[in-house]
Design brief:
With 453 residues, the chain is an alpha/beta fold. It has three domains: 1-63, no CATH class; 71-201, Beta-Lactamase (2-Layer Sandwich); 205-452, Rossmann fold, CATH 3.40.50. The chain is 34% helix and 27% strand. It contains 16 helices and 16 strands. The protein has helices spanning 10-13, 18-24, 62-69, 72-88, 94-109, 144-155, 216-224, 243-254, 288-294, 311-322, 336-345, 350-356, 400-407, 412-420, 427-436, 442-448, and strands spanning 26-32, 35-40, 54-59, 112-119, 123-130, 133-141, 167-175, 178-188, 193-201, 231-236, 261-265, 276-279, 302-305, 326-331, 357-369, 386-397. α4 runs antiparallel to α5, α10 (311-322) crosses α12 and α12 packs antiparallel against α13.
Length: 453
Amino acid sequence: MKIINHIIDYNFVNSFDINTLRESLSIPLKSEDIYFTSFTCVSSDISKVYTKSLIKSIELEKEEILFFLSDIQTRIKLYNLSLQSKNSNDINHNNIEEFFNIILKKSIDNRCSDIHIEAMNNSMIIRFRIDGILKIFYVFEKAFFVLLSSYIKLISKLDITQIRLPQDGRFNKEIENKSYDFRVSSMPTINAESIVIRILDKQNVKKDIKSLGFSSNIYKELENISKLKNGLVLISGPTGSGKSTTLYSLLKLLNNSNKKIITIEDPVEYKIEQIQQVSINEDIGLGFNKVLKNILRQDPDIILIGEIRDKFSLDIALQASLTGHLVLASIHSNSSVETLSRLVDLQADTYLLSTTLKYVFSQRLVLLLCKNCKKKGCTVCNFTGFHNRSSICEVLKVDENISSMIFLKNDVKLIKEHLKNTNFVSILDDGKEKVKEGLTTFDELYKVVCDEI
């Protein structure tokens, strides 16, 4: 992207009338004698701004120009703080602390899940992952990266001098009277370190099932899980499909004083009152397998296994389900039916599987059209046309027929044929309903569920 090779001097931008720049669809970068260098797009009308100058144009998308001209005062503030911090060359200086606090608040205001701070060839960029998509928010001089990364390491209790090996740390901040945990990962790259900050918003874990955007038929089956005394319930999908959020919301639904719930997570990201959560730590010998071996001695009613990752974890899940426990787990798979193939690939005992498996939910997250602009682009959606995401899902309820087919090791094709003769609603069908409701687009739906088509 062309923007990463150019540092915008926002003080220079601010010397122009911002409304006029928006109307002309241009961002002035610098002035050299009679020349102006400016970002423009095919719709730009630069005559409104540069009446007596020659223009060197660098083409940028219209939406990106509008985005970088939005919230100009924050950009000016950050730009000046970065220069002052670089000039002071002091990671404990108030300037860099103020800079970082603004970045954190901006990320939270934008519902960001991860902050990526990266060094390029000639610059450093800050990207926010919002609704699963990374977007460049800020570009600064490359020399500023060392100061910022050192400050982040300092507050995360990492080794500031170590730049050749990966490091992991955490810090906590209170922002507008709310407490947030931040998980930090540094990774050496050929340019410099890559810093990624995961925002652990404690409010997210308070979401209940009805706030996740599932269709009514999916809600009904998810709520039916609370009536189960034992069995295995799987949430499948690729990375970033919302599996963990659904599992946490299920725990909230199931959590009460009459039940003992234990979770095995790698790592624990959100702490839940009254639930016993175990965070895997291989460094001290607290491995996944060791916890699984001993978990039944804790007399749980409900067990959450963060991920079915191998035959051992699957066997424990099946045995626990058979002996009177309700087991919830996630698994990587493209669809509910293909999850059955995945379980067979992990050498599941088909008798135990057919006896204990109750539900397989396969889910994805689709971007929702921005209610404020309906894809035209505005400040609410950062000129993307989309704002927030909703779950789409299919549910395979293991009835007697499906159970028998699992036990007999029937081919997946036979199971799919059987489902065609029932009221099975595929994830694609579920998504199409959201398109009909005007919540998302066919392009977005097909992009998300292309594996199913």
